[in-house]
Amino acid sequence: MAKLFVYDAFNNRFYTYDLNENDPMPYSYGSTLKLREFRGSSGANVLWTTTAAMEAWNLTRRTYGKSIPVGYAFKRIWEGGHGTTSQHYAGVAFDVGQSRGADARKAIYNAAVATKAWGYVEPLSMTPTWVHFDRRYGKPACAKTTAGYPTVRRGNRSTYVLVLQDALNALGYTTGTLDGVFGARTETALKGVQRRFGLTADGVCGCNSWKKITEAVVGIGRTSTVIDK
Q: How far apart are CA 185 and CA 10, in angstroms?
């Protein structure tokens, strides 16, 4: 059994679900994406995504018209497996088609592009044995890039706040909860880690804070202060 957070940007709220591994992902079309497929190799008990990512998945699945095998989707940032700005940690990225041939992967890629629902579909030249697409949102905190995470501050809620809370907890700066809502305890924890890294302790996670925090936490493994329930 896993807890799943689904963020709806339209309503600016989270919906939570307790799901078994073979249950379909909420908002996904039919049973085309099950929790275990979305989870991939993640061993976490708490996962997250967005309604926008699920809607983009639905459009891609309908456009392609066949099953799409998912190799990697979600990971917690301390589990690693991807870069420091990976959208997989935000629960909005999919690496698919690893068990298919080149022609099938090209067809999946074309279907993803045709939907115009993804923020980014990686060129096939960069993904020779899989297809990557993600539904990122928000302007990246770091200039001159389309990747990375947006600036988050007190009062915000999103899966990027979940990434930040997860990272802070893993580093020992407790946020008290893992809920995707940037409240007072998340702000205090962020200020603490900003002081640790010699940054301005303003409680706002912008470009420099994201860089320092993600570099410190990606792939360090489950620490004793991780919240996973």
A: 26
CA-to-CA distance for 172 and 220, rounded, in angstroms?
12
Q: Any idea which residue has 């792939």 for tokens?
A: 219
Among 1, 41, 50, 46, smallest CA distance to 21 is for: 1
Q: From the CA atom positions of the chain, what is the Rg in Å? A: 17
Distance CA 32, CA 99 (A): 16
Query: Percentage of the chain surpassing pLDDT 90?
Result: 95
Q: What single letter denotes the amino acid at residue 153?
A: R
Secondary element (H or E) of residue 206: none
Q: Enumerate domains of the chain plus CATH numbers.
A: 2-134 (3.30.1380)
Q: What is the pLDDT of residues 164-190, one digit of tens each?
A: 999 999 999 999 999 999 999 999 999
Question: Which pLDDT tens digit goes with each residue over 120-146?
Answer: 999 999 999 999 999 998 999 999 888
Model pTM score:
0.96
pLDDT of residue 77: 98
CB-based contacts of 104, cutoff 8 Å, min separation 6: 97
